[in-house]
Amino acid sequence: MFKRERRYLAIVRSSVCSFLFLLLSLPAAGQSLDEVYKRALKEGGTVNFYGTLAQINAVRILPVFEKRFPGIKVNHIDATANALATRAITEARGGRTIGDVFQGALENLLQVQEQGLLLEKLPPEAAEYPNNLKGSSWVGTDLIFLIGAWNTNLVKKEEAPKSLDDFADPKWKGKLIAEPRDAEVFIGLARGKYKDDEKAIALLKKIAANNVEFHKGHSELAEFLVSGQGAACFTCYSHHFPPRIKKGAPVGYLLSEGIGTISGTAIFKNAPHPNTALLFARWAMSQEGQKAYAQGGRTPAHPKVQPVEKTRPEKIYAIGAAEIKDWPKYEKIWKEIFKIR
Question: Which candidate, 12, 33, 63, places its Cα nearest to that of 123?
Answer without folding.
Answer: 33
